[in-house]
Design brief:
Strand content: 5-15%
Order of helices and strands: EHEHEHHHEHEHHEEHEHEEHEHEHHHH
Shape: globular
Strand order of the largest sheet: 3-2-1-4-5-6-7
Distance between the termini: 6 Å
């Protein structure tokens, strides 16, 4: 079987597909991943084929106007100011997806990369979605794209419909134009792509932990929660001597990083971390990430690190302070360490609330509301309050019993067999 995977976004949106792709290849299947050029060498380094996908997410996130719209999403202002850019992005992604899918037996795509599904449909290829966040309609929790607490089953379920309607209002005309004008397909039915997905009972791999997001009785049966798709990046990786020395030198440090997020005032963020660490006497591993934090003027109790595998690093730490990306949250909790989320946008506040709900850390605080005082309190709590560590340890042990890769493979192979492509 030749499986083509298509995903767009940051590293956190690509890494699960690399993990799954390697597993499929180990089972004797040919696998290619279509995504942004930034990840080409990394994907090929894992022995997978790379295919091009239009878009430069780092450049998009570097635009302060885009970040502002993403942090405070208003469909009216987004449509007014970003419609042209959105059309250009999705049109380019559709064209590249059509090329990438040539010769494929099966297409596995990121649920948020809709042009990939359109391409597969046009070419008559079986396709299966992968959701890295809980996007299914349910009363168990509100939509992960709304920064609200649980509102009860009825309102929680309505929140998912509200988000679907908002997304369709924002992107519907773009997707229908692509279907009709570019692909000569009929437009989506009333209610858009989400209504079609539920109507046709399209399968979806929900690649997150059931420990972090317990599903209720109303969870769609065709949406299978697999567990996190974990990529082992430690094989062949050699930690820098400075990092080894720092870890040996004293008490376990706390990780601070914001992954692929861009910070409007990175210098102020670092200054707050430095001030809080000096007040607590704690040791910090500061991850440079896409924000480009640098080591200038950092005190001896803080070490700047770059591209360290989380599954190697996190078990060696006393806690983690991060942006709350789905992958980073799963990694810190799977390592069994207390976690504090400083969300920037999208689903990050949801993951922060889940961390607090599980007792593994304090309630999240949005980046714009973060202060030296609040960071100091978190660092002190990590050191002195054993309840976060105890809960995190239990959650980590439960997550380690999941095998997301094997669960995902089982669904994929069954689906492929039903389509006679295995």
């Amino acid at each position: 079987m030749y499986a083509v995977m298509i995903t767009s976004g940051t590293r956190g949106d690509v890494q699960p597909f690399v993990a799954l792709g390697k597993a499929l290849k180990e089972n004797g299947h040919r696998v290619a991943i279509a995504t942004h050029a930034e990840f080409k060498s990394w994907i090929e380094g894992h022995g997978l084929e790379y295919l091009s996908l239009h878009g430069d997410v780092r450049a998009i996130l570097a635009n302060p106007h885009v970040r502002q719209h993403m942090r405070h999403p208003n469909p009216f202002t987004i449509r007014k100011h970003l419609d042209g850019a959105i059309r250009e992005l999705f049109t380019g992604m559709l064209k590249d997806s059509l090329v990438a899918c040539q010769g494929a037996d099966l297409v596995i795509y990121n649920h948020s990369t809709t042009p990939a599904a359109l391409a597969a449909e046009k070419l008559g290829l079986p396709h299966i979605a992968v959701a890295l966040q809980p996007l299914s309609r349910t009363g168990s929790h509100p939509s992960c794209m709304m920064n609200v607490p649980s509102m009860g089953k009825t309102l929680n379920r309505l929140s998912h419909r509200f988000v679907e309607i908002s997304i369709w209002w924002l992107f519907g005309s773009v997707f229908n134009d692509l279907r009709v004008k570019e692909l000569n397909l009929p437009p989506f039915p009333r209610g858009g792509m989400f209504s079609q997905m539920y109507r046709d009972k399209e399968p979806m791999l929900c690649a997150f932990s059931n420990v972090l997001v317990p599903t209720g009785h109303d969870w769609p049966k065709e949406h299978v929660v697999t567990g996190t798709l974990i990529l082992n990046e430690t094989f062949g990786w050699v930690p820098p001597p400075a990092l080894i020395d720092f870890l040996k030198d004293g008490e376990k440090p706390i990780y601070v990083g914001i992954g692929s997020m861009m910070d409007d005032d990175a210098e102020k963020f670092v200054d707050m971390v430095v001030a809080a660490s000096q007040k607590t006497g704690g040791r910090i591993l500061l991850s440079s990430g896409w924000a480009g934090f640098d080591s200038k003027n950092l005190p001896e109790n803080i070490l700047l690190v770059r591209d360290v595998p989380h599954d190697w690093l996190f078990p060696k730490l006393s806690g983690a302070i991060h942006h709350g990306g789905a992958g980073t949250t799963a990694a810190s909790l799977r390592a069994g360490i207390p976690t504090f989320v400083v969300p920037y946008l999208a689903d990050q506040p949801f993951w922060g609330r889940q961390v607090a709900k599980l007792g593994c850390g304090p309630k999240p605080i949005a980046r714009e509301k973060l202060t030296i005082k609040s960071i100091t309190k978190v660092m002190n709590d990590f050191k002195s309050d054993g309840k976060y560590a105890a809960y995190a340890k239990n959650v980590g042990e439960a997550m380690k019993k999941e095998n997301g890769i094997e669960a995902a493979k089982k669904v994929i192979f069954a689906f492929a067999a039903s389509k006679h492509v295995l």
